[in-house]
Amino acid sequence: xxxxxxxxxxxxxxxxxxxxxxxxxxxxxxxxxxxxxxxxxxxxxxxxxxxxxxxxxxxxxxxxxxxxxxxxxxxxxxxxxxxxxxxxxxxxxxxxxxxxxxxxxxxxxxxxxxxxxxxxxxxxxxxxxxxxxxxxxxxxx
Amino acid sequence: xxxxxxxxxxxxxxxxxxxxxxxxxxxxxxxxxxxxxxxxxxxxxxxxxxxxxxxxxxxxxxxxxxxxxxxxxxxxxxxxxxxxxxxxxxxxxxxxxxxxxxxxxxxxxxxxxxxxxxxxxxxxxxxxxxxxxxxxxxxxxxxxxxxxxxxxxxxxxxxxxxx
Lengths: 141, 163
What we know:
The complex is a heterodimer. Chain A is an alpha+beta fold. Chain A has one domain (8-139). In chain A, 40% of the residues lie in helices and 23% in strands. Chain A has helices at residues 8-15, 25-56, 71-86, and strands at 94-97, 103-109, 112-118, 124-130, 133-139. A 5-stranded antiparallel sheet of chain A has the order 1-2-3-4-5. Chain B has one domain (3-113, 126-155). Chain B has an 8-stranded antiparallel sheet. In chain B, strand 6 and strand 7 (142-146) form a beta hairpin. The longest helix of chain B has 6 residues, at 79-84. In chain B, 37% of the residues are buried. Chains A and B meet through strand 1, strand 2, strand 4 and strand 5 of A and loops of B.
């Protein structure tokens, strides 16, 4: 469970593959460790190839009248990624700039999409879409 | 105002174009669900809704034109498909010239007062119905066509220019 108590944690636990009763405890442990390592690697990729890179080179995202992520948003996104990584959460399927200075972490499960939206001032919202329709949004921080 | 100034109602059979900048990563064909909801979020220039262009006034190539040297996708919708999903599209030539239209909503990604799980659904994010085209720099001789019809196409293979 995330230290933030995020609903995102529910999504990640639901996405965890059930452990087969046919495997030995050692194998189960090994696959759990492997999944955890993969997830941690996924979060590290978010930090290294997205957030740090965007901070170093915001011109990568300059396009028409779109605004690259602000320093506050990058800082908040980095802290959030570290927190969720260390809590063993599933990494997002996509991390994108919002175009107004904010950043979105998206977690897709078929028709279900959960988004952690980091605003340009560093505040965070939890948004749920189903079949590409907005179902709910809630301010977390 | 006459029919040629872009104020006439949008017919169900009309195609609508929405430009999506490649630089933002809002479309990734490698992902199971390639399009991010952010691709249909209102941006600075979307004053009263999400900007789209009517195919009867602007060609696909024209709709794809953004900042020089940048690459864009164009999402293509059929107006009737949006209407069936309760999504209203209104001609707004006064905002961008003839052919400009807007998918209406205060904020199609949800308003600030929609707090808490279980808040009522709003008109939502329009699904990509008819296809998504990738445009490289307009000087490029080839483009990728993605979506229902995958493959590489020359400019000549794109839907007929109009008007």
